[in-house]
Amino acid sequence: MEIRIGITNSPRELTFETDQSASDIEKTIQQALESDKKYFTLGDDKGKLYIVPVAGLAYVEVGSEESRRIGFVA
Question: How many DSSP H helices and E strands does the chain contain?
């Protein structure tokens, strides 16, 4: 699924694909916002790790877990 994260005072957003479920991502971000953590981490499907500052978090857009169709639909 595609994840898009907006960072305040940054003209670009962080976009990547991940194998994590939407509920796992929501839980990770919710725990970071409710605690005194300074950052949270998310990993993509290629093994990269993204460290996002909680104070600079503008928005998080989580794509659907449905896979895309390939080919023609009859």
Answer: 1, 5
Q: For residues 24 and 8, what is the distance between their CA atoms, to the nearest angstrom?
A: 23
Distances (CA, A) of 48 to 17, 38, 60, 70: 10, 20, 18, 26
Parallel, antiparallel, or unpaired for β 2-7 and 13-17? antiparallel
Whether the full predicted model's pTM is greater than 0.90, yes or no, is no
Q: Report yes or no: 39 and 57 within 8 Å, Cβ to Cβ.
A: no
Distance CA 32, CA 56 (A): 12
pLDDT tens string 27-73: 999 999 999 889 999 999 999 999 999 999 999 999 876 666 666 66
